[in-house]
């Protein structure tokens, strides 16, 4: 794909045009059994503080030990983001007091992250592509959870989540509209799921984004791009922990408007951390977190530098699964699919897998249509994933085969699909049981055509003037044949009889 | 880099140590004494020297991804000043 | 039977194995001593009498069944920095008063594996921050030694003052201790006992209350070099639970004790001659050098040019790490929690203000300051770079010498209260010991003589990383030459 920089969506203010500039920090929970620095389980649904070790709870004399699988997952992700893997990295402590942080510091990587610069190709809604630069990816610990609704005067602390491994993926300020922000997060999520390094479950908070939003006058971003000088850009605010695509978009829209209003009123933006409140539909300042943001980062003296063997990195690279972009390109070249179809198919790995299983030896375009339209809609209505489809790929393949063989028309196929979905058997069984076989007998079609032309001489005459009126005749013939006539034959015979 | 009472107040707050106002000046004086003594490090030429974060000249060991710990709520809670239903209980946190 | 509490650890272990006496007997003898002495010496913050008797009986059973471990039945004191399962562990702080860990430190677990018996937990400077034991929330430990012609209570040094005093006063056969800037070697020197800090990474830090992670190292305080070797080799082990633990076998260091030092090259660093050093210290050092020369060592003058920067470096690195390590004491999950607070911030600030003593608070504030925005590079990073210079100084001399000999401390034990006014005065106690912590090297303090007031003085031997063997060898040679057998006269 061509390297196209995102084009900004201009926002009209009272005093002129504004552009939004955004960088995102995505926190993705590493798919692992145990925590980053302790042997306690990672997971959802355990009772309070059941998945907590003395290490996680910060007891005196407890020490961290690093989960190698989490390191591997970070490296895998870095490779998936086409990023630099740093063979030497280091863990640092980020110091602050909060009841969900038992040790009083979060172990993170500030000075030497495990993954450096990379780039992600993102599909925009209009089918164009834009690149988002990745600044870094680092490993860090998640915090625990505070529960506020069990008491009016006190908060309850559950440390089950404390110490769970997170990958923080930091983008360059390359994102220019709420739509692009959503597309970017979707793309990262897809890549993580393809790699198996994060389950991408946003409802459980396993993937969440901090959005850094700033606005500037039209043209300033170009100057920033040309010089790398951040002073061309506006002051940014960070909206913390937005955990759905809808909220990301809403929060950005609100925040950009808020900043523009302040600036147009002659005010200045205060760099701060904000929170998106979905109920109120607004962002507001998180003063509690602002109060002391001198984190006093320093290398964690309990942990030594993390050193990776090049051979180990190479091995992970060699065993990397096919990534969404590569799959998209392959689907296009191998199956002759359009970019649009390929993009839709790769958006979920299971969908693409389903397609490939059904497409073998069949008309790929037709298979793709069935997979991305009818089947997608049915699964979505049932809240199911492609991996949970009650209809195996072989049945879609069979349905397409019936169309290809001319046994059924596409229209009948829809009816057949309904019956198959209802569990009446395979497409062939349904066709046979219900007598849905397409009429290919040209004699029968000719007979129907002749009768209809004879009954409607005026319409037949009009067709000479208005050839698109043939559609009416096609409809009539199909009706007369109970929808079973082969549409191609109907067309051919009608054209011949009507002298077109 | 002399420390004044305001700086002591700020840093004491960073360290979450309540420091009465009448202790700020004396603490500032003590800290200035220590820091001015520390400042002799300025004499040392450290051009091109790597910061030494550890005495151990080896790389970090990696642990296997296995669940070997947890499931010890009683132990975790045994010393808690305040707890209820398996949770630690703290004053209301305003977010 | 003669007084069992006067035995060395080695003699006691041998006697127990030979069934000359039982563990219960010697344990009871120590408990009796402690009962009599502790009100005056304040060495123990908690005596675990029942547990000691139970452990002793179990040891006696193992001795009877022929399954005795290397330290079977030997009653030891444990510095209250080591977490002991089911037994209060305070680190000398009000913050942890009443804290009962549901886990055991690796160092103490190794001792129990080898059959040792725990008499109780030993007093210490709060969170190991101090050189006189006066920062302990449980009151200072008193040195069994008295200056001739004075009845003033003296400090046993710190932070392992309880360990040193208990060993010197026969309140245990030997004790665990820990050393971040000299906290084993300085109290050993002040009490006429032997203390060694091994190479960083030899002893696991798991379950040891952290002060400064990159410097903290456990070690023993014992009556002589051989006992120190015996105890240290039981304390040390590779531990997967400590990422800085070294995956190497622990040698039998008792084999090094008594081996000839002939031909060893001993370095004498010019920079350890410091301003205002008492003549007696210089004389003792000269004496030590002469003893080693007599024993066949080659004496090599060396230079460790960055020595004078070691203490200022330490007073950045250690408080910085401590400010972070001690952030977990917040009154939320364990430890002291203030009452009557008005908000979360108030709870944090009041709990920590009440739970920590003045010296700890001072260091936490310094630590937060040197790490804070704008000062990190100027102080912390700078200190880490100087630290490397200090380590490189040592690296540069190891092809010329096998070990280095220096005084352990710049003075003998001083009176309690003497140096409390000026923290800097107190910090200077560690001037000779702190370099070994910054460079991660093993260092031993061996009693070598008495000053004009009849107080013990120590000599320090510093060795190459992982070369505790030579350190013990040279330490034992000094011990033998000095023939130091004087004990504090019993006044308690
Ligand atoms: Mg962030
Ligand atoms: Zn983060």
Please give a structural write-up.
The complex is a heterotrimer of chains A (500), B (95) and C (492). Chain A is elongated, with a radius of gyration of 29 Å. Chain A has 17 helices and 17 strands. With 500 residues, chain A is α+β, with helices and mostly antiparallel strands. Chain A folds into three domains: 2-316, no CATH class; 322-433, no CATH class; 442-498, Arc Repressor Mutant, subunit A, CATH 1.10.10. In chain A, the strands form four sheets. In chain A, strands 1, 2, 7, 8, 11, 12, 13, 14 and 15 form a nine-stranded mixed sheet that branches. In chain A, strands 6-5-16 form a three-stranded antiparallel sheet, with no helix packed on it. A two-stranded antiparallel ribbon of chain A has the order 4-17. Residues 1-6 of chain A have low confidence and may be disordered. With 95 residues, chain B is an alpha+beta fold. Chain B has a domain at 5-42. In chain B, strands 2-3 form a two-stranded antiparallel ribbon. In chain B, helix 1 crosses helix 2. The longest helix of chain B is centred in the first third of the chain and has 18 residues, at 21-38. Chain B is flat and about 55 Å long. The model of chain B has no long low-confidence stretch (mean pLDDT 94). With 492 residues, chain C is of the alpha/beta class. Chain C has a domain at 4-261: Alpha-Beta Complex (Amidase signature (AS) enzymes). Helices cover 37% and strands 12% of the residues of chain C. Chain C has helices spanning 9-17, 23-41, 49-64, 106-113, 161-168, 185-191, 225-235, 279-294, 310-325, 344-355, 358-371, 376-397, 423-427, 434-439, 468-482; strands at 44-47, 75-79, 117-122, 175-179, 194-197, 217-222, 265-269, 298-302, 403-407, 443-450, 456-463. In chain C, the strands form two sheets. Chain C has an eight-stranded mixed sheet with strand order 4-6-5-10-11-9-7-8, sandwiched between helices. In chain C, strands 1-3-2 form a three-stranded mixed sheet, with helices on both faces. The longest helix of chain C is centred in the last third of the chain and has 22 residues, at 376-397. Chain C is globular and about 65 Å long. The model of chain C has no long low-confidence stretch (mean pLDDT 97). Chains A and B meet through strand 3, helix 1, strand 10 and strand 17 of A and strand 1, helix 3 and strand 3 of B. Strand 3 of chain A pairs parallel with strand 1 (62-63) of chain B. The complex binds magnesium ion and zinc ion (ZN). Chain C: Residues 25-471 form the Amidase domain. Chain C: One of its GO terms (cellular component) is glutamyl-tRNA(Gln) amidotransferase complex. Chain C: Belongs to the amidase family. GatA subfamily.
């Amino acid at each position: 794909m061509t390297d196209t920089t995102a084009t900004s969506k201009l926002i009209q203010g009272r005093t002129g045009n504004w552009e939004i500039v955004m960088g995102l920090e995505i926190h993705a929970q590493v798919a692992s059994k145990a925590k980053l620095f302790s042997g306690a389980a990672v997971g959802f649904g355990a009772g309070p503080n059941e998945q907590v070790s003395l290490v996680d709870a910060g007891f005196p004399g407890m020490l961290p030990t690093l989960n190698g699988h989490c390191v591997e997952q970070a490296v895998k992700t870095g490779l998936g983001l086409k990023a630099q893997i740093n063979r030497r990295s280091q863990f640092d402590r980020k110091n602050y007091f909060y009841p969900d942080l038992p040790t009083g510091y979060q172990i993170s990587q500030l000075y030497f992250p495990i993954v450096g610069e990379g780039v992600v190709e993102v599909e925009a809604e209009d089918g164009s592509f834009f690149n988002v630069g990745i600044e870094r990816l680092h490993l860090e610990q998640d915090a625990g959870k505070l529960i506020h609704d069990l008491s009016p005067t006190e908060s309850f602390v559950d440390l089950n989540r404390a110490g769970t491994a997170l990958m923080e993926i930091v983008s360059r300020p390359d994102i220019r509209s709420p739509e692009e922000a959503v597309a970017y997060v979707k793309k990262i999520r897809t890549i993580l799921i393809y790699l198996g390094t994060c389950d991408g479950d946003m409802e459980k908070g396993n993937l969440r984004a901090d959005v850094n939003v700033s606005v500037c006058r039209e043209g300033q971003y170009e100057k920033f791009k040309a010089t790398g000088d951040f002073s061309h850009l506006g002051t940014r605010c960070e909206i913390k922990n937005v955990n759905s695509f809808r909220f990301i978009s809403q929060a950005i829209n609100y925040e950009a408007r808020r900043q523009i209003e302040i600036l147009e009123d002659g005010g200045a933006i205060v760099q701060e951390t904000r929170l998106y409140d979905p109920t109120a539909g607004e962002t507001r300042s998180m003063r509690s977190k602002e109060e002391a943001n001198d984190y006093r980062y320093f290398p964690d003296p309990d942990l030594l530098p993390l050193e990776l063997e090049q051979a180990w990195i190479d091995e992970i690279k060699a065993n990397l699964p096919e990534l969404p972009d590569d799959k998209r390109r392959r689907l296009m070249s191998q199956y002759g699919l359009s970019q649009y179809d390929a993009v839709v198919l790769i958006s979920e790995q299971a969908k693409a897998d389903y397609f490939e299983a059904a497409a073998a030896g069949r008309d790929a375009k037709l298979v793709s249509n069935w997979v991305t339209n009818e089947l997608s809609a049915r699964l979505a209505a049932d809240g199911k994933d492609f991996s949970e489809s009650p209809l195996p790929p072989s049945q879609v393949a069979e349905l397409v085969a019936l169309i290809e063989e001319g046994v059924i028309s596409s229209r009948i196929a829809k009816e057949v699909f309904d019956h198959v979905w209802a569990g009446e058997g395979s497409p062939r069984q349904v066709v046979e049981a219900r007598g849905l076989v397409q009429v290919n007998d040209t004699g029968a079609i000719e007979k129907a055509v002749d009768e209809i032309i004879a009954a409607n001489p005026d319409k037949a005459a009009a067709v000479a003037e208005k050839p698109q009126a043939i559609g009416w005749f096609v409809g009539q013939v199909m009706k007369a044949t109970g929808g079973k006539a082969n549409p191609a034959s109907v067309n051919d015979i009608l054209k011949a009889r009507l002298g077109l | 880099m002399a420390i004044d009472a305001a700086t002591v107040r700020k840093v004491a707050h960073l360290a979450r140590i309540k420091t009465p106002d009448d202790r700020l000046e004396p603490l500032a004086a003590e800290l200035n004494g220590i820091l001015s003594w520390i400042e002799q490090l300025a004499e040392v030429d450290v051009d091109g020297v790597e910061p030494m974060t550890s005495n151990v000249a080896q790389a970090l060991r990696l642990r296997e991804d296995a669940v070997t710990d947890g499931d010890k709520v009683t132990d975790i809670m045994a010393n808690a000043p305040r707890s209820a239903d398996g949770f630690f209980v703290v004053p209301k946190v305003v977010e | 039977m003669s007084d069992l509490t006067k035995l060395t650890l080695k003699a006691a272990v041998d006697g127990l194995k030979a069934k000359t006496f039982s563990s219960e007997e010697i344990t009871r003898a120590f408990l009796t001593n402690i009962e009599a002495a502790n009100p005056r010496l304040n060495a123990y913050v908690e005596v675990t009498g029942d547990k000691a008797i139970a452990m002793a009986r179990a040891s006696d059973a193992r001795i009877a069944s022929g399954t005795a471990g290397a330290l079977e039945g030997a009653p030891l004191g444990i510095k209250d920095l080591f977490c002991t399962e089911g037994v209060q562990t305070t680190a000398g702080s009000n913050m942890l008063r009443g804290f009962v860990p549901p886990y055991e430190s690796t160092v103490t677990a190794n001792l129990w594996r080898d059959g040792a018996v725990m008499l109780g937990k030993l007093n210490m400077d709060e969170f190991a921050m101090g050189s006189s034991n006066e920062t302990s929330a449980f009151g200072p430990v008193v040195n069994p030694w008295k200056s001739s012609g004075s009845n003033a209570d003296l400090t046993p040094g710190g932070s392992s003052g309880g360990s040193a005093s208990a060993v010197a006063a026969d309140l245990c056969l030997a004790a665990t201790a820990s050393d971040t800037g000299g906290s084993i070697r300085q109290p050993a020197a002040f009490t006429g006992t032997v203390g060694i800090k091994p190479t960083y990474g030899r002893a696991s830090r798991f379950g040891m209350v952290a002060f400064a992670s990159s410097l903290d190292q456990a070690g023993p305080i014992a009556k002589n070099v051989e006992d120190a070797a015996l105890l240290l080799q039981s304390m040390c082990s590779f531990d997967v639970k400590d990422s800085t633990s070294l995956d190497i076998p622990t040698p039998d260091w008792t084999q090094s004790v008594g081996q000839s030092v002939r031909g060893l090259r001993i370095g004498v660093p010019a920079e350890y001659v410091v301003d205002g050093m008492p003549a007696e210290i210089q004389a003792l050092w000269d004496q030590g050098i002469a003893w080693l020369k007599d024993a066949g060592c080659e004496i090599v003058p060396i230079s460790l040019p960055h020595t004078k920067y070691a203490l200022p470096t330490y007073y950045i690195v250690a408080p910085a790490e401590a400010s972070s390590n001690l952030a977990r004491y917040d009154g939320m999950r364990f430890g002291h929690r203030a009452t009557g607070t008005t908000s979360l911030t108030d709870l944090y600030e009041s709990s920590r203000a009440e739970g920590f003593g003045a010296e700890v608070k001072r260091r936490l504030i310094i630590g937060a300051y040197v790490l804070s925005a704008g000062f990190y590079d100027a102080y912390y990073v700078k200190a880490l770079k100087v630290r490397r210079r200090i380590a490189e100084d040592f690296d540069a001399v190891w092809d010329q010498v096998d070990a280095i000999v220096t005084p352990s401390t710049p003075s003998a034990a001083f009176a309690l209260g003497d140096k409390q006014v000026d923290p800097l005065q107190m910090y200077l106690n560690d001037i000779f010991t702190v370099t070994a912590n910054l460079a991660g090297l093993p260092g031993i303090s061996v009693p070598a003589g008495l000053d004009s007031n009849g107080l013990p003085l120590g000599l320090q031997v510093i060795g190459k990383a992982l070369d505790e063997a030579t350190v013990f060898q040279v330490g034992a040679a000094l011990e033998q030459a000095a023939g130091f057998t004087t004990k504090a006269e019993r006044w308690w």
